[in-house]
Amino acid sequence: MLSWGRLWAVARKEWLQLRRDPRSMALAFAMPLALLLFFGYAISWDVKDIRLALVNQDDGEQSRELVQAFQGSGYFRVVERLPSTALVDRELAEAHVTGVLVIPPTFARDLAAGRGAAVQLLLDGGDANTATIAQSYADAIVARFSRDIVLRGRRMEMPAAAEVRIWYNPTLESRNMVVPGLVAVIMSIIAAMLTSLTIAREWERGTMEQLASTPVHRLEVIFGKLVPYLLIGLFDVAVTIGAGMLLFQVPFRGNPLFLGGATLMFLIGALGLGMFISATMKSQLLATQLAMIGTFLPAMLLSGFIFDIASMPLALRVVSLLVPARYYIVVTRGVLLKGVGPTVLWVQGLSMIIFAAIGLGLAAATFHKRIQS
Amino acid sequence: MPPAAVVVRDLTRRFGEFVAVDRVGFTVAEGEIFGFLGPNGAGKTTTIKMLAALLRPTSGQATVAGVDVARDPRGLRRRIGYMSQRFSLYPDLTVAENIELFAGLYDVTGERLEARRAWVLELAGLEGQERRLTGELPLGWKQRLALGCAVLHEPPVLFLDEPTSGVDPIARRGFWDLINAMAAAGTTVLVSTHYMEEAEYCNRVLLMSRGRLIALGSPAELRAGFDEPIFALRTDDAPRAVEALQHAPGVVEAAMFGREVHVVAREAAEAERSVPAALAAAPRGAIAFGGMRRVQPSLEDVFVSLVRRAGAATEA
Question: Do B89 and A217 count as a contact with CB atoms less than 8 A apart?
C-alpha cells in the first residue's frame, strides 16, 4: 500500500525546504556545536583550586609543612596571607576566598609536647556542595600530615587502610560525565525543535490541504518528513561526540554500532514527538515554544544529567521514567565511558525502541485526526 | 446524455449546531463545467471539500468518478484534481521542484513525467523559468502552475475552489481558457466562484445560500426563469437613490449596479410611474432622474433576487 516513490517525493521536498531555510539550517548545524561548547565549558562539578586565605600565627617549620601539604594536594591554593583573624569574616563574606586556614601560635609547641595541635578551617557554606568536598579533602590532608608526624623515623603498617580506585573515569573529570549527557540533552532539543515547525507550517500555509488531496498516505508523509531530519540528527550526534573527544578528551570505549542503533531509535522518537507537537498546535510559534519547554527542561533536569535520579523524590522519579533522554544518557555514558554494550544496556535499548514507536504513533494519530475533521 | 461524473444526494455537513451544507443534491455530466455560485459562507467550499474527500459528510451520499467519497477516499484522490482558494504550492521550491513533487505524489514517472512536465510548463507559460522559486512568481502564473500541478495525473474530475480570487481580469480570462480546453478534452470541472461573469462560462450553475441549493440550471435557463421586469436607472447619486427607492410602491428591490441602479419591479407600468416620483420626493432633497430603460436580467440580478426570496422563505 505504501509507496517508496511518494515517500521519496515528500523526503526530497522536505530536504529542499530545509536547505533553503536559514533558521532550520542554523538549528541543525550550528546549534549542537554551540551548545556543546557552551555547556562543555560552563558546566563543571570538579572542585579544584579552592581559594584559601592563610592566617599562620605560628610560622614554624611544621606549620609551613602543613601549608605545603594543602598546596601540594592540588585542591587548595593559598591566595592571601592575613596577619590576624580580624579580617577573616570580611574575606569570606565578600567571597574573595572559599576558606580560611588558621594555624594558632601554639601549633609547634603543642605538637612538640604531644598534646594534639588544633588548626582551624573556616569554610563558606553558601555553596554547600563545594564546602562538603573541601572539608573532606582537608580532613584527608590533615590526617595524612598527622600520621607522618607520628610515624616520623619509624615504619609501621596501618591496621586498616582503604585503597580507593575510581573506574571508568579515573581522574573524576566531570567533563567525562557532562559530554555524553550533553549529547542526549542537545539532541532532545534539536530533534523536537526541527520537526516542530514542519507540520504546523504546512497547516499555516494551506499546503497540507493540497497534500491531503493527493493519494499520499499519512505514513508516507510522516516517514518522508522524518528521513532528512534523521540524517541530520545522526550527523549532529557524530559531530557532537567527535568534538567532545577532540576538545574535552572524552573517551570512546564501546561499540559505535550499538550507540548508532540506540541513537537512531532515540532520534526517531524525539523527531516523532516534535511532529506530534507540530500536528497538535495550530501555529508554528506555539509549536516551537512547546517543543522547547517540553523537551529542554525535562532533558536537563529529569534525565539524570545534572541531578541524580535515585536521590529525587518518588513523584519526580516516576515522571523521569517518561523522559526519553534519561535512557539515552545511560546509553551514551555507558558506551563512551564504560565500553558496555547491549547485554548490559538492553533495558535502555528497549526503552528507546518503545519511545520511537510512541513518538511515531502519536504523530500519525494526530495527523490523521486533523485531516477530515 | 453522457454518463454522470458526479452524483450527489442529500449531502449534509454540520459543524456543531451550524448546518454548513443542508441536503444538497445534483448530478454533473462528464465533460461539463459546473459552477457553484453563492455569497461567502453559502457552503460552496464545504461542498467541494466533501466531494474531494477532505471533509467527511455528516450525512448523505456522493459518488465522484464512480467512487463513493466516504467509502474509498484514497481511491478517489487518484481520480481527482483539487485546487483550493489559497495558493497552495510550496513557495520555497522552484517551479520544477513543485512539478516533480506532485508528479511523485500522483505516481507520475518516467516518460509520462517528462511529457507532463513539458505540458505543465507550457500551460503555465513558464518554459525556461523552471529554476525560479515559485514564491517569486506573479499570482496569475502561480495559479496556472497550481492548476497544472493539480492535473498532472490527468484526472477525470477537477475541483477548483475560487481559483481566480485576487487574480487580475486578463489573467482570469486566460485561466478560463485553460478550463474550457480541459473540459473540451473530457475533464469534468466543478468550480466555485463569486465572480458573476465567470458563472456565464459554466454549462450549468448551482446557486447556494445558507447551505441550501436555491437554483440550478444553465445561465440562460436561470435568466429565463426570472419573471419580474427589471430597469436600469441613470442618476448622479446612486447610493441615495437606492435608499429612496427601497419603499417606493411597486419596487421589489433596488441595488447599485456599476454607476447605475437596477430596479426590480412588481409590474412595469407601476414602476415607471413611481420611480421618478420617489426620486423627486426623496428625503434631504430631490435626486436627479436621468431616465430608465428595461434591461435583460443579468445573472447577478437573478442571483440577488433568488437569494432574497430564499431568505424571505426561511424567515417566514
Answer: no
B9 belongs to a structural domain: yes
Is B47 domain-assigned? yes
Q: Which residues does B108 contact at the CB level (< 8 Å), separation at least 6?
A: B116, B152, B153
Cβ distance B305 to B228 under 8 Å?
A: yes
Answer whether A12 sits within 8 Å of B55, measured CB to CB. Answer: no
Angle, in degrees to the nearest 10, between helices B95-105 and B139-150: 20
Residues B236, B180, single domain; the answer is: no
Q: Which of B161, B187, B217 is the last residue of a domain?
A: B217
Flag whether B24 is in a domain. Answer: yes
Q: What is the pLDDT of residue A366?
A: 81
Number of domains in chain B: 2
The answer to whether the Cβ–Cβ distance between A9 and B103 falls below 8 Å is yes
Please tell me whether residues B248 and B183 are part of one structural domain.
Answer: no
Residue B16 pairs in a beta bridge with none
| Interchain contact, B104 vs A21, CB within 8 Å | no
B87/A371 Cβ within 8 A: no
Residues B247 and B171 in one domain: no
Q: Does A264 touch chain B (CB under 8 A)?
A: no
What is the C-alpha separation between A185 and A294, in angstroms, rounded?
Answer: 12
- Per-residue confidence in pLDDT tens, chain B, 316 aa: 567 899 999 999 999 999 999 999 999 999 999 999 988 888 999 999 999 999 999 999 999 999 999 999 889 999 999 998 887 899 999 999 999 999 999 999 999 999 999 999 999 999 999 999 999 999 888 999 999 999 999 999 999 999 888 888 888 888 999 999 999 999 999 999 888 888 889 999 999 988 999 999 999 999 888 888 899 999 888 888 888 888 888 888 888 887 888 898 888 888 888 888 888 888 888 888 888 899 888 888 888 888 888 776 665 4
Q: How far is A354 from chain B (nearest CA, A)?
A: 30
What is the residue range of B180's domain? 4-217
* Residues B47 and B171 both lie in one domain: yes
Reduced to 3 states (helix: H, G, I; strand: E, B; else coil), residue B236 is coil
Burial class (CB within 10 angstroms; exposed 0-12, middle 13-18, buried 19+) of A346: exposed
Interchain CB contact of B88 with A (< 8 Å): yes
Closest chain B residue by Cα to residue A212: B54
Last residue of a domain, one of B155, B185, B217: B217
Shortest distance, CA A19 to any CA of chain B (angstroms) = 10
Residue of A13, A213, A216, A221 to mutate, interface with B, max B Cβ within 10 Å: A213
* Residue B165 belongs to a domain: yes
B112 and B64 fall within a common domain? yes
pLDDT bucket at A169, cuts 50 / 70 / 90: low
Residue count of chain A? 373
* A234: contact with B, CB 8 A cutoff: no
- Asked if A10 reaches chain B (Cβ–Cβ under 8 Å), the answer is yes
Q: Do A213 and B77 touch (CB under 8 A)?
A: yes
3-class state of residue B265 by DSSP: strand
Residue of B nearest to A11 (CA): B101
| Grid coordinates given for A161 | 587502610
**Are B240 and B117 in a shared domain?**
no
| Chain A CB contacts of B165 below 8 Å | none
* Residues of chain A above pLDDT 90, percent: 17
